[in-house]
Design goal:
Layout: H1 2-30, E1 42-48, H2 53-68, E2 74-79, H3 85-96, E3 102-106, E4 111-113, H4 115-122, E5 125-128, E6 133-135, H5 149-165, H6 170-178, E7 182-184, H7 185-190, E8 196-197, H8 201-208, E9 237-239, H9 244-251, H10 255-274, H11 280-296, H12 303-322, H13 327-342, H14 355-358, H15 360-381, E10 395-398, E11 405-410, E12 413-419, E13 429-436, E14 439-444, H16 450-460
Parallel strand pairs: 1-2, 1-9, 2-3, 3-5, 4-6, 5-8, 12-14
Antiparallel strand pairs: 6-7, 10-11, 10-13, 11-12, 13-14
Helix pairs in contact: 2-3, 2-9, 3-4, 4-5, 5-6, 10-11, 10-12, 10-15, 12-13, 12-15, 13-15
Length: 461
C-alpha cells in the first residue's frame, strides 16, 4: 500500500512539473517581449504627400494585408501637409477597425499636419522623432477661406473623440483644429499628444514592444502600459508599397502639375477655337483640363485663382480679335501669374505652385499664343493652294470624250469628270468649275487658254 502511494505521489509531481513547463513555454511563445523575438515581420506603410483617395486606398489595403497575414503590427510613417477630409476619415476608420496593432511614427524632419494630426491621434500607439512636428489641423475649404463654424465644430469633436479614445490630450487636439496650433516632438510628448519620442522607426518599434529596460513607459501612467505590449521586439520589417496606379495618380496630385495641366488645357482649347477643323488640340485640351480639375479636388483650391486663369485665357483671345498688338496678351500673362499665386490656400503647407514654374510658364504661354494664334488667324485668310478645295479654276485635259461623263487628266492624275458646257471631245482643254466629291465638273476652254491655265495650275500646285 505504501508503495502504491509513493507511485501516485511521483506521478502527480511529474504531471505538475509537466504542466508548469507547458504553461511557461506557452507564456514565452505568446509574449515575445518576455523572451523570444517575433519572427513575423511588421508591415510598414508610408503616408507621404497629400492625403488623397489614392493614399487612403493604399493605407487601407496595407492594413487589410497585415490582418490577413496575422502580422504582429503595422507601422505607418507619416509625412503629410494634410489633404481631403473624406480620405483622412477612411484611413482613420481602417486604423480603428484593425485587428492588428497600428503604430504611427513621424520621422525626423517630417510633419503630421492637418489630416496627418487626425491619423496620429487615431493610432493606438504613436511617436515622433526629434525635429518633426504635429498640428495645424484647421479645416480649409475649396474657396481657401476658413470653413464655417459647423465644419470646424465637427472636426474638433472628431479629433477630441480620437484623442480621448487613446487616452491622449483631447484639449490640445481640439485647439489644433480651432486655432491651428502646432507642437514639436518634445512638446507633443510633454503635452501627452504622442506616446514616445524615438530617433528612428526601429527605435519606435522597440519602444512600442517595451524591448529594453525602461523603454515603453507610457506618458499617461501605468494604466496604459498594456497598450504597449505589442509583439514587435526583434521583429523584422517588411515594406508594403502602393500599386503602380496609386503611385502614379498620387504623384500627379501636385499644385505645380495641376497648374501646368490647366494652362495646357486652356491654350489647347484656344488653338482649337481658332482652327476647329484641327482636332488634336481639342483632345489635348479636354484631357488636360479633366486631369487638372481632378487634381484640384485633392487640394485646397481658391475659386478666385481658377477665375483668374479663365480671365487670362479670355485676354489672350481678345488680343487676337482686337488686334491691339500684344497689350492684352501682356495683361493675360500678368493675370495668369496672379491666378497661379491665388490658386491655392497659402496657409496649407506645400500647397503652392513652384516659383520656378509660376513665372516662366505664363511668359512662355503668352509669347507662344501671341505668335501662334496670329499665324493661325492669318492662315485662315489665305486662299487654298492644295486639296480638293483648291481645284476650281485650274485647267485639265479631257482623256476621253465627255458625253457629258468621262475622264480628265489633271496634274498627272486621272479624274472622273462631267461636262457642264456640252459634249467635249478627247484632248480638249477644260477648266474645272467645281469638285463634287471625287467627280469634277468641267467646262471646255479654247486651246489658246491652255498654256496659261496649265501654267497657273502647276504654279498653284
Amino acid at each position: 500500500m505504501s508503495r502504491l502511494r509513493l507511485l501516485v505521489r511521483v506521478g502527480a509531481g511529474a504531471a505538475g512539473g509537466l504542466l508548469v513547463a507547458v504553461a511557461t513555454l506557452a507564456f514565452l511563445l505568446g509574449n515575445p517581449a518576455a523572451g523570444a523575438a517575433s519572427t513575423k515581420p511588421v508591415l510598414t506603410l508610408n503616408l507621404t504627400g497629400v492625403v488623397d483617395p489614392f493614399m487612403a486606398t493604399y493605407i487601407e489595403r496595407g492594413i487589410a494585408a497585415a490582418e490577413a497575414g496575422h502580422d504582429p503590427a503595422v507601422l505607418i510613417t507619416i509625412d503629410t501637409p494634410g489633404g481631403l477630409d473624406s480620405s483622412m476619415r477612411g484611413i482613420v476608420h481602417a486604423i480603428l477597425g484593425s485587428s492588428v496593432p497600428v503604430v504611427c511614427y513621424t520621422p525626423p524632419g517630417a510633419r503630421a499636419a492637418s489630416a496627418g494630426t487626425f491619423v496620429m491621434e487615431a493610432c493606438p500607439i504613436n511617436g515622433m522623432a526629434p525635429g518633426s512636428e504635429i498640428g495645424a489641423a484647421h479645416p480649409v475649404g475649396i474657396s481657401g477661406a476658413i470653413e464655417t463654424a459647423k465644419v470646424v465644430n465637427d472636426a474638433a469633436a472628431f479629433i477630441a473623440g480620437l484623442a480621448s479614445r487613446q487616452g491622449r490630450n483631447a484639449t490640445w487636439a481640439t485647439g489644433a483644429v480651432r486655432n491651428s496650433t502646432s507642437l514639436d516632438a518634445a512638446g507633443a510628448l510633454t503635452r501627452n499628444v504622442v506616446d514616445f519620442v524615438a530617433p528612428s522607426a526601429t527605435a519606435m518599434l522597440a519602444d512600442a514592444g517595451r524591448c529594453t529596460a525602461g523603454a515603453g513607459t507610457p506618458t499617461t501612467g501605468a494604466d496604459r502600459s498594456a497598450a504597449y505590449r505589442v509583439p514587435t521586439c526583434g521583429a523584422p520589417t517588411q515594406a508594403f508599397g502602393p500599386t503602380v496606379g496609386e503611385r502614379l495618380f498620387h504623384a500627379v496630385a501636385d499644385p505645380s502639375i495641376a497648374f501646368i495641366l490647366l494652362d495646357i488645357g486652356l491654350v489647347a482649347l484656344i488653338v482649337w477655337a481658332f482652327h476647329p477643323g484641327f482636332h488634336p488640340p481639342l483632345a489635348v485640351g479636354v484631357v488636360s483640363l479633366a486631369l487638372g480639375l481632378a487634381i484640384l479636388q485633392t487640394l485646397p483650391v481658391r475659386l478666385a485663382g481658377v477665375f483668374l486663369l479663365v480671365v487670362a485665357a479670355v485676354l489672350l483671345v481678345l488680343d487676337i480679335k482686337a488686334k491691339v498688338h500684344g497689350i492684352l496678351t501682356t495683361g493675360g500673362v500678368v493675370v495668369l501669374v496672379l491666378g497661379g499665386l491665388l490658386l491655392f490656400n497659402p496657409s496649407v503647407p506645400s500647397a503652392r505652385v513652384s516659383p520656378l514654374l509660376l513665372y516662366p510658364l505664363p511668359v512662355a504661354i503668352g509669347v507662344m499664343t501671341f505668335f501662334l494664334l496670329r499665324a493661325l488667324a492669318a492662315a485662315k485668310q489665305e486662299p487654298l493652294h492644295a486639296g480638293v478645295g483648291a481645284l476650281p479654276g485650274t485647267m485639265a485635259v479631257a482623256e476621253t470624250a465627255l458625253t457629258p461623263l468621262g475622264r480628265v487628266r489633271l496634274r498627272g492624275e486621272s479624274w472622273a469628270a462631267e461636262s457642264v458646257g456640252g459634249e467635249v471631245a478627247a484632248g480638249t482643254p477644260v477648266r474645272i468649275v467645281r469638285a463634287r466629291g471625287l467627280t469634277l465638273e468641267v467646262f471646255p476652254e479654247p486651246a489658246a487658254d491652255m498654256g496659261t491655265g496649265l501654267g497657273s495650275a502647276t504654279k498653284g500646285a
